[in-house]
C-alpha cells in the first residue's frame, strides 16, 4: 500500500513536539511527512520545510494556503497533524475538517471545554477520523496492564494513584516551550493541569477501564506572578466506587518526567513508571511480586502488537507515540483501532480541566465531573 501523506501545522524551528510527531509517524514506514505550515512566520515555515527535507513548494506560509494547494494535487495530504500551542488546536482542526481532511492532534484537544464541544460536533457531523496523542496509552506494558485488569487479574479496582511530577518550570518560564505554557492566551484555562495533568487523568481511566465521576481539586500558581497553575493535587472518585489521587506538578525541583501509576484491586496491584517503561510490576495477594518485561512471550495481543523488538531491547517514548500513529493509519484505512484516543477522550479531558480549575478557585468540596452531552 502507498504511504499515507502527512501534513503538519506547527512544529517550526525550536519546537519539541513537531519533530516527535514526524519521527513517530514515519517509524513504521507507513506514513511520510509531505507538507506543512510549520510557523505563523512564513520565513520560519520555509526554513522548517528545509530541515524536514520536504519538497520546497510544499512548505506553506499558512494553513489555509496549504489546505487549498494540497486539495488541488493528485498526491495531496491524507491527514493533518496539529502540533501547535493549545489555542490553535480548534482553528486548525476546524479548517482541516471543513476541507475533508482527517486530524491527528496533540493533546489537549482544545484550549477550553466549549471549544472541545464544538470540535466534537464537527467531528461527529463530518464522520472523519480524529485522534489525540495521549502518548502513554501507546506503551506496550500500559496496554498489557489495561488488558489484565479488564480480565480480572487484580479483582475489583479499589485505589488508583497517578502522579506526574516535573521540575522544569520551578523558576522563570523562559524559552519557546515554556513561554506559551504559562500564557493563558495560548495555553488555555489550565497550566500544569492542562499540560501534564490531563496525561495522568487519561492514563488513570485508560488503564483502569473506569471513569472519574467526582473530584476535589487543589490547584496553585506557586511561582510568583504566574497566572496559571503549576502545581496540582486532585482527589478522585470512580464509577465503581474506587478512590484515587492525582498529583501533577511542574515546580518539583529535580523531577524530570516522573509519570507513575499504581492501581490496587481486591487481589493484587499494578505499578508502572514512564521513566522505566519496559517493566510492569504486578503484586499478588499472596505476597509475590511479578516483573513483567517488555517483549515477554506471555504478553497479550494488545501489548504484543505494540512491541517492535525482542525482550531486552528497550522501547520508549518515540515507539509509544508511533503506536498511536500506527493505530491512526489503521483507522484511515477503515480498520478498527479501539485503543486510540479520540474526540470523546478529548472532551472528557477538557471537562476534567475545567471542573478542576473552577472547583479549586471556589475552594469547593467534592464536585461531579459532568460531561456535556452524555
UniProtKB/TrEMBL annotation:
It holds the Pfam family GFO_IDH_MocA_C3. InterPro entries: Gfo/Idh/MocA-like_OxRdtase_N (IPR000683), Gfo/Idh/MocA_oxidoreduct (IPR051317), GFO_IDH_MocA-like_dom (IPR055170), NAD(P)-bd_dom_sf (IPR036291). Residues 5-130 form the Gfo/Idh/MocA-like oxidoreductase N-terminal domain. Residues 142-270 form the GFO/IDH/MocA-like oxidoreductase domain. It comes from the Bacteria. PANTHER family: CONSERVED EXPRESSED OXIDOREDUCTASE (EUROFUNG), OXIDOREDUCTASE. This is Gfo/Idh/MocA family oxidoreductase.
Amino acid at each position: 500500500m502507498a504511504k499515507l501523506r502527512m501534513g503538519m501545522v506547527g512544529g517550526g524551528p525550536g519546537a519539541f513536539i513537531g519533530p516527535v510527531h514526524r519521527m513517530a509517524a514515519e517509524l513504521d514506514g507507513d506514513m511520510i511527512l509531505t507538507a506543512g505550515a510549520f510557523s505563523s512566520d512564513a520565513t520560519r515555515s520555509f526554513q522548517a520545510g528545509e530541515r524536514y527535507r520536504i519538497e520546497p513548494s510544499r512548505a506553506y506560509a499558512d494553513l489555509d494556503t496549504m489546505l487549498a494547494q494540497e486539495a488541488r494535487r493528485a498526491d495531496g495530504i491524507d491527514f493533518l497533524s496539529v502540533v501547535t500551542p493549545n489555542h490553535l488546536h480548534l482553528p486548525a482542526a476546524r479548517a482541516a475538517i471543513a476541507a475533508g481532511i482527517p486530524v491527528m492532534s496533540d493533546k489537549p484537544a482544545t484550549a477550553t471545554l466549549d471549544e472541545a464541544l464544538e470540535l466534537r460536533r464537527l467531528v461527529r457531523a463530518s464522520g472523519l477520523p480524529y485522534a489525540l496523542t495521549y502518548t502513554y496509552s501507546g506503551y506496550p506494558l500500559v496496554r498489557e496492564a489495561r488488558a489484565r485488569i479488564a480480565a480480572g487479574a487484580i479483582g475489583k479496582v479499589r485505589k488508583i494513584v497517578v502522579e506526574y511530577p516535573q521540575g522544569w518550570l520551578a523558576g522563570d518560564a523562559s524559552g519557546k516551550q515554556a513561554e506559551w505554557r504559562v500564557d493563558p492566551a495560548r495555553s488555555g484555562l489550565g497550566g500544569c493541569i492542562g499540560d501534564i495533568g490531563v496525561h495522568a487523568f487519561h492514563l488513570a481511566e485508560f488503564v483502569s477501564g473506569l471513569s472519574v465521576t467526582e473530584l476535589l481539586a487543589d490547584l496553585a500558581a506557586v511561582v510568583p506572578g504566574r497566572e496559571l497553575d503549576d502545581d496540582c493535587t486532585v482527589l478522585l472518585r470512580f464509577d465503581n466506587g474506587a478512590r484515587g489521587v492525582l498529583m501533577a506538578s511542574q515546580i518539583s525541583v529535580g523531577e524530570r518526567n516522573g509519570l507513575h501509576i499504581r492501581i490496587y484491586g481486591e487481589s493484587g496491584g499494578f505499578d508502572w513508571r514512564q521513566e522505566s517503561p519496559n517493566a510492569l510490576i504486578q503484586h499478588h495477594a499472596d505476597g509475590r511480586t511479578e516483573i513483567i518485561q517488555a517483549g515477554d512471550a506471555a504478553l497479550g495481543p494488545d501489548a504484543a502488537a505494540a512491541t517492535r523488538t525482542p525482550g531486552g531491547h528497550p522501547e520508549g517514548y518515540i515507539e509509544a507515540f508511533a503506536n498511536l500513529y500506527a493505530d491512526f493509519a489503521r483507522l484511515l484505512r477503515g480498520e478498527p483501532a479501539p485503543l486510540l484516543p479520540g474526540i470523546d477522550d478529548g472532551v472528557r479531558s477538557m471537562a476534567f480541566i475545567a471542573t478542576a480549575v473552577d472547583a479549586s478557585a471556589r475552594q469547593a468540596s467534592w464536585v461531579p465531573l459532568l460531561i456535556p452531552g452524555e
